[in-house]
Amino acid sequence: MLDTKIVSLLTLITCKSYTKAAKQLHLTQPAISHQIKQLEEEFQIKIFHKSRKHLILTPEGEILVKYAHRMMAVYNNTHQALEDAKNNLHRFNIATTPTAGEYYIPQLLAAYCREHSDVHINLITDSINNIYNKLKLYEADFAIIDGRLTSDKYQSILLDTDYLCLIVSPQHALANRSSVNMNELLEESFILRSKEAGTREIFENYLESQRDSIRNYRILIETDSLATIKELVMSNMGVSIMSHNACKEDEQKGRLKTIPITNSTMIREINLVYPKDFQHVDVLLELKKTYSKLQ
């Protein structure tokens, strides 16, 4: 059973108040304080800095909380796995980046579940940095990301390759072009993903490789919502750089035009990323096989 002191610590971190944590756990405030003190004595650390108004973690406290989250995740996963075993069910928590999660990955997972009735999938969409954190804390079993693996703590299986292209409204002056140079876009209004997004990173790296800079272009809006970007581009409010796969359906229905950028090297990988101790690599290989059938 998970140590109740760990539960109290994580609840306190979430509630940011001894009073609120005590109420949520149906304990007294002194009981919560006593459990925190027990943790400090057990590990011989101070968990919080002295402050009357705010709960501010010490460096040692941050380490303890990080591993407390991991213990909680392992406990919950163990409980769920044992329950699933009773029902002959295999459950996977899968994290995915927004571009993958909004378009082609749900179809892949639905197709896989149709072929495997004993599998249940919980899909989590998040930023790439948060996804690596979820893998580290065992909150996700594996991930499907657009981009290359950036950590040697994990392994990956290439699912597909994609490329970034210019997207414009069918009414845009460039809509019928077979390709376009970046210097032709200097006066355009760009609607782009936020700076933390993998798509944005690939685009900026490409510009730098061409001795260019994102600062030379007029950015109208930055957002994490792919739907918002496409809606604004469809309305001819600006142009964007986006995954070609993410625009296929809209292009086929005549809502958007995709235009390759001349001499572009903005190739993007789509990878299955998993911890080295992941026990179901066979599932990932089956997912790759199912994905190939859908193309």
UniProtKB/TrEMBL annotation:
<feature type="domain" description="HTH lysR-type">
    <location>
        <begin position="1"/>
        <end position="58"/>
    </location>
</feature>
<dbReference type="Pfam" id="PF00126">
    <property type="entry name" value="HTH_1"/>
</dbReference>
<comment type="similarity">
    <text>Belongs to the LysR transcriptional regulatory family.</text>
</comment>
<dbReference type="InterPro" id="IPR036390">
    <property type="entry name" value="WH_DNA-bd_sf"/>
</dbReference>
<dbReference type="InterPro" id="IPR005119">
    <property type="entry name" value="LysR_subst-bd"/>
</dbReference>
<dbReference type="InterPro" id="IPR036388">
    <property type="entry name" value="WH-like_DNA-bd_sf"/>
</dbReference>
<keyword id="KW-0805">Transcription regulation</keyword>
<keyword id="KW-0804">Transcription</keyword>
<dbReference type="InterPro" id="IPR000847">
    <property type="entry name" value="LysR_HTH_N"/>
</dbReference>
<dbReference type="Pfam" id="PF03466">
    <property type="entry name" value="LysR_substrate"/>
</dbReference>
<protein>
    <recommendedName>
        <fullName>HTH lysR-type domain-containing protein</fullName>
    </recommendedName>
</protein>
<dbReference type="GO" id="GO:0000976">
    <property type="term" value="F:transcription cis-regulatory region binding"/>
</dbReference>
<dbReference type="GO" id="GO:0003700">
    <property type="term" value="F:DNA-binding transcription factor activity"/>
</dbReference>
<keyword id="KW-0238">DNA-binding</keyword>
